[in-house]
Amino acid sequence: MALFRKLGGWAGLIRLDIVTLAFAFRHPATPWYVRGLCLLGVAYLLSPVNLASYFIPLVGMIDDALIVAGVIWLALRLMPAQAREESQVRAKAWLARFKTWLRNGALVVVLYVLVFGGGLLYLLWHLLGS
């Protein structure tokens, strides 16, 4: 159970770092080489050509994870402190809004299923009962 909690914490940090880089990409103080590094990382992820093949189980995925983690780490270290801090504040606010939006969206889906599912059951009850 503690392992899943740790993995969830790491996933949250990676999510924050990725959103921080997305905001930093558009920040005027972010240097061109950091933007280029971010583009190279995304291009590598989307590219069908990889350094390690997917034919060997897990090696291709581990390769992608290590390269992307390295790109994130390097881009955050090369970025000026002001741009990183401002982007991180914006990323935290965006993620907080997204969590609320996701929770509200899930509630809408559940209500939708309950209302239309209940209506369908009501209709079937009256059609089969008569």
From TrEMBL:
<dbReference type="InterPro" id="IPR010652">
    <property type="entry name" value="DUF1232"/>
</dbReference>
<keyword id="KW-0812">Transmembrane</keyword>
<keyword id="KW-0472">Membrane</keyword>
<feature type="transmembrane region" description="Helical">
    <location>
        <begin position="6"/>
        <end position="25"/>
    </location>
</feature>
<keyword id="KW-1133">Transmembrane helix</keyword>
<feature type="transmembrane region" description="Helical">
    <location>
        <begin position="55"/>
        <end position="80"/>
    </location>
</feature>
<feature type="domain" description="DUF1232">
    <location>
        <begin position="35"/>
        <end position="69"/>
    </location>
</feature>
<protein>
    <submittedName>
        <fullName>DUF1232 domain-containing protein</fullName>
    </submittedName>
</protein>
<feature type="transmembrane region" description="Helical">
    <location>
        <begin position="101"/>
        <end position="125"/>
    </location>
</feature>
<dbReference type="Pfam" id="PF06803">
    <property type="entry name" value="DUF1232"/>
</dbReference>
